[in-house]
C-alpha cells in the first residue's frame, strides 16, 4: 500500500511541477492542433485587416485635423498580428506546467500590477479613460493582458478550492492563494480607477460564468441568466427617467441616459448611437459596397475603426456581412466551449471556459453597445477592431487555447490511462479528473 501511495505521490508531483526537458515533447503537440478553430481565427483576422483598412479611410484626426492614413493603420494592425502570432506560438510550445505553477501566476500578476499602476500615473488618456501606457512610439493597454492572467488565476483558485485539492494544501499554498486573491482585487480596482468600466464588467462577468459552470447546476445557471436579462431590461426601462438636472454630472449617468434615449443629447452622448443606427439603416441587406461607406467620412461616426467597426461592416457589407462575421466569431466561441468539455483536467477546462467566455462577453458588449442594447463601454470587437493590444491578446488567447487542447490530446495518446491524483484525508491518494 505504501509503495502504491509513493508512486501516486510521484505522479501527482509530476503533474504539478516541471519534469524533464521543458520542450522535450513540443514537436508532438503540433499534430494535435485544432485545425477548425485555427481556420476560423485566420478568417476573422483577414476580415479584420480588410475592415480596418476600409474603416480608416477619410477619418479626420481630431488633434491635427489631418486625414488618417489607411495603409499606415493597416501596417500597424499587421504588426500587431505578427507580434500576436509570435506570442501565440510561444504560448503553444510552453508546457501547461507554466500556468499551473502558482509562483509563475503570482509573478505574472505582480508584473501586470506594476504596469497598471504606471498606466494610472503616466498613462495616455483617451475617451475619458487612462488605459494606455506609452512605450517609445507605441502604446500598450495592460488591462488587455491582465484579462488573460485573470482567467488563469481564477481557474487556479477554483481548482484549488475543491474539496479533494483543498485537503492537500499546506500553509504556504494557503498564503499564496490569499496573496493571489488580493492582487486580483487590487488590479481590478486600479482598472476601475482609470476608469475602464467596460473592462471591469467583462472581467467580472467572465468570473461569474467560470464560477457558475464549475459549481452551479443548470437550473441555477438558468435562474441567474434570467435575472441578468431582467436587470438589463429594467435598466433600459428606467434609463430615460434620469432627471435632466443630473445630466452632465458624470459621464456614466450621461451614457446610461443616452442608452435609454439617445435623442436627449443628439450632439454629444447620443451622437454615436444615432449615427450608428444610420450606418445600419444605410447598409440594408447587402451594404453599399466595401470602402464606399459615408459614416466614416469627416468623423460622422467617431471610433468607427475601433469600438464601432461593426457599424462600418453593416453599412458597407450589409446585414449579410454582419451575420457572417458574427456567425464565424460565435462558431469559434462555441468550438472553444466544446474543446473545454473534452479535456481531462478541471483547471484546463476552466481556463478554456474562461477564455471562450472572455471572447463571448466582449463581443456582446461591443455589438450590444453599437445596437443600443446596452450602454456604450468602449471595448473592441475581438480580431476585428483596430487596436494593437486587443489583437495581440486575442491571438495570445488562441495560442493558449491551442496549447491546452494539443497537449491534452498528446497526453491522451501517449499516456491514455493517466489520471490526476489528489492526497486523501487518511494520507493515501485518491484519483479524479482534476
Describe the structure.
This protein has 434 residues and is mostly helical. The protein is globular, with a radius of gyration of 23 Å. The chain has a domain at 96-381. It is built from 16 helices and 5 strands. The longest helix has 34 residues, at 309-342. Belongs to the SEDS family. FtsW subfamily.
Q: Which parts are unreliable, with pLDDT below 50 for 5 consecutive residues or more? A: 1-21, 420-433
Proportion in β-strands: under 5%
Q: Quick check: average pLDDT? A: 82
Give the % helix: 55-70%
Q: Could you say which structural class the secondary elements and strand pairing correspond to? A: mainly alpha
GO molecular function: lipid-linked peptidoglycan transporter activity; peptidoglycan glycosyltransferase activity
Protein name: Probable peptidoglycan glycosyltransferase FtsW
EC number: 2.4.99.28
Keywords: Cell shape, Glycosyltransferase, Membrane, Peptidoglycan synthesis, Transferase, Transmembrane, Transmembrane helix
Features:
434 residues; cell shape; three-stranded antiparallel β-sheet; single chain; peptidoglycan glycosyltransferase activity; transmembrane helix; two-stranded antiparallel ribbon; transmembrane; FtsW/RodA; disordered C terminus; mainly alpha
Secondary-structure blueprint of this entry?
Layout: H1 2-16, H2 26-29, H3 35-55, H4 70-93, H5 97-100, H6 102-122, E1 124-126, E2 129-135, E3 138-140, H7 142-159, H8 163-166, H9 171-193, H10 197-215, H11 218-239, H12 251-260, H13 271-283, H14 309-342, H15 346-371, H16 388-414, E4 420-423, E5 429-432
Amino acid at each position: 500500500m505504501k509503495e502504491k501511495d509513493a508512486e501516486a505521490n510521484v505522479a501527482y508531483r509530476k503533474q504539478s511541477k516541471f519534469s524533464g526537458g521543458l520542450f522535450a515533447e513540443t514537436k508532438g503537440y503540433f499534430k494535435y492542433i485544432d485545425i477548425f478553430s485555427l481556420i476560423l481565427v485566420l478568417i476573422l483576422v483577414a476580415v479584420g485587416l480588410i475592415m480596418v483598412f476600409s474603416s480608416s479611410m477619410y477619418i479626420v484626426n481630431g488633434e491635427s485635423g489631418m486625414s488618417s492614413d489607411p495603409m499606415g493603420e493597416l501596417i500597424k494592425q499587421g504588426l500587431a498580428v505578427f507580434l500576436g502570432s509570435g506570442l501565440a506560438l510561444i504560448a503553444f510550445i510552453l508546457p501547461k506546467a507554466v500556468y499551473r505553477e502558482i509562483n509563475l501566476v503570482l509573478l505574472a500578476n505582480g508584473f501586470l500590477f506594476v504596469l497598471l499602476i504606471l498606466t494610472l500615473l503616466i498613462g495616455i488618456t483617451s475617451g475619458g479613460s487612462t488605459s494606455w501606457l506609452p512605450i517609445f512610439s507605441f502604446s500598450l493597454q495592460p488591462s488587455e493582458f491582465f484579462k488573460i492572467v485573470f482567467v488563469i488565476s481564477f481557474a487556479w483558485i477554483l481548482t484549488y478550492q475543491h474539496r479533494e485539492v483543498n485537503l492537500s494544501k499546506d500553509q504556504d499554498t494557503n498564503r499564496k492563494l490569499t496573496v493571489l486573491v488580493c492582487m486580483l482585487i487590487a488590479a481590478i480596482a486600479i482598472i476601475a480607477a482609470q476608469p475602464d468600466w467596460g473592462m471591469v464588467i467583462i472581467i467580472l462577468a467572465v468570473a461569474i460564468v467560470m464560477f457558475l459552470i464549475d459549481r452551479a447546476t443548470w437550473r441555477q445557471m438558468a435562474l441567474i441568466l434570467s435575472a441578468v436579462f431582467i436587470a438589463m431590461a429594467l435598466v433600459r426601462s428606467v434609463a430615460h427617467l434620469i432627471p435632466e438636472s443630473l445630466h452632465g454630472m458624470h459621464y456614466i449617468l450621461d451614457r446610461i441616459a443616452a442608452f435609454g434615449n439617445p435623442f436627449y443629447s443628439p450632439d454629444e452622448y447620443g451622437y454615436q448611437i444615432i449615427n450608428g443606427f444610420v450606418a445600419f439603416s444605410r447598409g440594408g441587406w447587402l451594404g453599399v459596397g466595401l470602402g464606399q461607406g459615408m459614416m466614416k467620412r469627416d468623423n460622422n461616426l467617431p471610433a468607427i475603426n475601433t469600438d464601432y467597426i461593426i457599424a462600418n461592416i453593416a453599412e458597407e457589407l450589409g446585414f449579410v456581412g454582419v451575420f457572417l462575421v458574427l456567425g464565424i466569431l460565435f462558431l469559434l466561441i462555441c468550438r472553444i466551449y466544446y474543446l473545454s468539455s473534452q479535456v481531462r483536467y478541471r483547471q484546463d477546462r476552466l481556463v478554456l471556459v474562461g477564455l471562450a467566455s472572455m471572447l463571448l462577453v466582449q463581443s456582446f458588449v461591443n455589438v450590444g453597445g453599437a445596437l443600443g442594447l446596452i450602454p456604450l463601454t468602449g471595448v473592441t470587437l475581438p480580431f476585428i477592431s483596430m487596436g494593437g493590444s486587443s489583437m495581440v491578446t486575442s491571438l495570445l488567447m488562441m495560442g493558449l487555447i491551442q496549447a491546452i487542447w494539443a497537449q491534452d490530446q498528446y497526453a491522451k495518446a501517449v499516456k491514455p490511462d493517466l489520471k490526476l491524483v489528489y492526497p486523501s484525508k487518511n494520507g493515501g491518494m485518491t484519483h479524479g479528473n482534476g
